[in-house]
Design goal:
heterodimer; A: mainly alpha; B: mainly alpha; 80% helix; 0% strand
Chain lengths: 262, 256
């Protein structure tokens, strides 16, 4: 048990520091602070030009979804960069239990996604002059943490696919694009065609963004509890799918000796 | 003649290589479609066909910049990683002449993105553009891609000493989309933004493409796009020579 906890916490943090190459101010600030700000401003201006949505709508959508950048890319890196540094084989031949090994890598990513979202929401509110009562921020931050968790679950699935597909950066970008279109970041889900609305219901972020918008409109945490519950459930399902895929692909790559051929 | 051949062959080689890359080729075409889709939904909500058509042209142009901005900043990093940067610098051919065709090839991939986005708008969203001046539209689109390739050249050279150059490229994508009038008219932006926009070739290129598609005199904008693109290439040329000289003197080309 103690070993598993060490692998989960210390191993997860060590892996994050070693494999996530963005931990330098030269990358961190442009990628996690400035770029999400310009994305938010871009869509807020486009929304104004198109005559749809208000600043709060775009702040909540883009603020929450900015967590997806680290949640998808950092999780993808957990496999891709192990391969790049030549340590993937060593990792998968280690006797460490897989549950703490892979889930431990997700914890720092969730924190990272949460921090990116908080900065985006705070700075975005200042830039767009969005006024939200101080008391409403705490539940919004709670929803942000939940959305980061669920999105990291999707990132775990992307990481697992990284055992089969070499181009994880391309894959993560496409997954990010799908999230942006489907989850109501800039276009309300009820405006989308029916089939897209159905897909949106099973994707991370959809319920989190909706909950954050409700909270910003003055609803209470109890009012949005079903949305938060759904977001957590979706996150848990994706974590389970991602972990199962990791285990299966690892097994399959041993069986067919294909670990380095992806 | 020798220079033209060098540029032409290198451009074609780079275009073939990038077209086969999932990141530089396929993603450069697919990724802008996600943004175009959101934009079509946003402008389509009020059923204003005129606004939707204008947005479709702007969204199509976004892909050209998208294809250049991130990849241009990583061009020389890629050469460094492959161990070919020193060879390029040491070759008797002028160094900028080996980089310019690479960044123009990115603009060319951006043209594919432009076409695919227009087709996506036509067939998935029913956005029909009548193209008031089809020939001028093609000229304007090619000039836009060429000029953005020249901007990409400056970006590539300027980021050669920056290990995390790709972060610059990603960073530049949205600001240029925002302030160069791809979708939002310059009049809707704060006054202080306009002088910056006028210094950027995409502002003129996008205006030219839009005028050619929707009816208007595109030629002045085409000329300004070319001239401003050439100015960026000139600055890039001088900077490249200065940086190469500096790297030779201090032996810092490899950044090790």
């Amino acid at each position: 048990m103690r070993t598993s906890l060490r692998i989960f916490f210390i191993g997860g943090m060590a892996s994050y520091r070693a494999l996530f190459h963005w931990l330098t101010p030269w990358i961190l600030i442009p990628t996690f602070v400035v770029a999400p700000m310009f994305e938010l401003l871009f869509f807020a201006f486009v929304g104004k030009d198109a005559g749809v949505g208000d600043n709060t709508f775009y702040l909540m959508g883009n603020g929450i979804s900015s967590a997806a950048i680290p949640c998808l890319f950092a999780m993808g890196n957990t496999i891709a960069n192990e391969r790049y540094t030549g340590t993937l084989g060593l990792l998968l031949t280690s006797p460490a239990r897989r549950l703490p090994l892979f889930l431990g890598r997700a914890l720092p990513v969730i924190l990272n996604g949460f921090c990116v979202s908080v900065v985006a929401l705070g700075l975005g509110a200042l830039l767009l002059h969005v006024s939200i009562p101080a008391g409403d921020w705490l539940p919004i931050l709670a929803v942000t943490a939940v959305a980061s968790f669920s999105c990291t679950g999707l990132g775990l699935v992307a990481a697992a696919i990284g055992l089969r597909v070499r181009e994880t950066a391309t894959l993560s970008n496409i997954v990010l694009g799908v999230l942006l279109v489907f989850t109501g970041v800039n276009v309300a889900v009820n405006v989308l065609p029916q089939w897209m609305q159905s897909v949106a219901q099973v994707l991370p972020m959809t319920h989190g963004i909706e909950a954050a918008r409700e909270l910003a409109a003055g609803r209470s945490l109890e009012d949005v509890a079903p949305l938060v519950r759904d977001e957590i459930l979706i996150g848990l399902v994706f974590v389970a799918i991602g972990f199962a895929m990791l285990v299966w692909f690892e097994h399959d790559s041993r069986h067919h000796a294909t670990l380095e051929t992806a | 003649m020798r220079v033209l051949r060098l540029v032409g062959v290198t451009w074609w080689l780079q275009l073939k290589m990038r077209s086969r890359s999932s990141f530089d080729g396929i993603l450069s075409i697919v990724y802008p479609l996600f943004f175009a889709t959101m934009i079509f939904f946003m402008y389509g909500q009020h059923g204003d066909q005129e606004a939707l058509v204008a947005a479709s042209v702007g969204a199509a142009c976004m892909g050209v910049w998208s294809a250049v901005s991130t990849t241009a900043s990583t061009t020389l990093q890629g050469e460094r990683r492959q161990g070919t940067l020193e060879l390029l610098v040491a070759s008797p051919t002028s160094f900028p002449l080996t980089v310019v065709p690479a960044t123009i090839s990115m603009g060319t991939i951006g043209l594919w993105s432009l076409v695919v986005t227009l087709l996506w708008g036509r067939f998935a969203f029913g956005i029909s553009i009548s193209f008031a001046q089809p020939v001028v539209f093609v000229v304007a689109a090619v000039v836009l891609a060429f000029s953005l390739g020249l901007v990409g050249f400056l970006e590539a050279v300027a980021s050669v000493r920056y290990r995390a150059a790709w972060a610059i490229g990603s960073l530049l994508e949205f600001p240029v989309w925002l302030i160069c009038g791809f979708l939002v008219p310059l009049d809707a932006l704060p006054d202080w933004v306009r002088p910056i926009a006028y210094l950027l070739p995409p502002t003129w290129g996008v205006a030219a493409v839009r005028d050619a598609a929707l009816g208007g005199n595109a030629w002045p904008d085409i000329a300004l796009c070319l001239v401003s693109g050439a100015a960026y290439a000139g600055i890039g040329w001088l900077l490249a020579r200065r940086l190469v000289d500096s790297a030779r003197m201090r032996a810092t080309l490899a950044l090790t």
